[in-house]
Amino acid sequence: MSIRIISPGLSTTVQDLGRPGYYHIGIPLSGAMDRLAARAANLLVGNPEEAALLEVVFMGPEIEFLQDATVAVTGAELPPKVNGEEKATWTSLAVKKGDVLSFAFLKKGARAYIAISGGIDVPVVLGSRSTYTLGALGGFEGRKLASGDVLPVGAGRGAAEGRTVAGELRRSPGAPAELRMLPGLYWHRITEAAGRQFLEDTWKVAPEADRIGYRFKGGKPLEFVPREPPFGAGSDPSNIVDACYPYGSIQVPSGTEPIVLHRDAVSGGGYFMVGAVISADMDLIGQLQPHTPARFVEVTMEQALLARNDRARLIDRIRQALA
């Protein structure tokens, strides 16, 4: 079974839940930016949650099905169309051989996920089918999809048409988006007043927002505590001796525009980090469009762990609803 890409949209890649275990040698996790939406899409079509699917950014592709299949589109509100007829998102759809899946204009969010029964059957590289485009690794030939590509799809029984994930089980950012964060090892590098201001400011997503990291602008520059630069660090007060970068870490080059590192992030460097966005809110970042307002909200480790448990329970509720 396979599908043919008639038009790839703006940026469409093969992703799954990522390749953990290699970040220490510079190979990032990759995988779906919105993991909850990806899991839900796979569950809707009867796939394992970790099956490979397509991640779409802003503009949907046009796809011809070369065999019958079950399809679901989740994440961003990017209405799918089968042979020109608009269908519901977060709902399983039956398609026949020769049918064409296309998309209307984006209404909300940034990234949609297209799951196909059987999963996208590209080769497994280091334990994952995810595309890491910067390293030309995994996915379909290590790159974004292009017109004329034919992707293999695994054998799958599919699922009944019309299964849906209820609205209360879907997550989307608020307005402004609230990104919960833990202050980091370098929080002491800024003044107490600057720390308060950082949390009080409303930032906006900059156009430089991708799978590597999301840049935010519009807040006040940070004020640093005076110091004698340590050996190996640069003269800019935001420089540090090179250190590891965790996923979700918030670096602020020159103290002006925060960057939240995401699924394809580099694993280390020489910018200080004010903290890290908690794991439960990383999915939300992947759904932020440029110019979207956002705030960073300080939480404790206990609150971060409770949020992670809440997200796990939400995924369990989706599993139970579609069982």
Automatic annotation (TrEMBL):
State if Glycoprotein is listed as a keyword: no
What Gene Ontology terms describe what this protein does at the molecular function level?
A: ATP binding; hydrolase activity
Residue ranges constituting the Carboxyltransferase domain according to the UniProt record: 24-314
**Classification via InterPro entries:** CT_A_B, Cyclophilin-like_dom_sf, PxpC
> Could you tell me the keywords of this UniProt record?
ATP-binding, Hydrolase, Nucleotide-binding
Query: Does this entry carry the keyword Nucleotide-binding?
Result: yes
NCBIfam families found in the cross-reference section: urea_amlyse_rel (TIGR00724)
Official protein name in the record: Biotin-dependent carboxylase-like uncharacterized protein
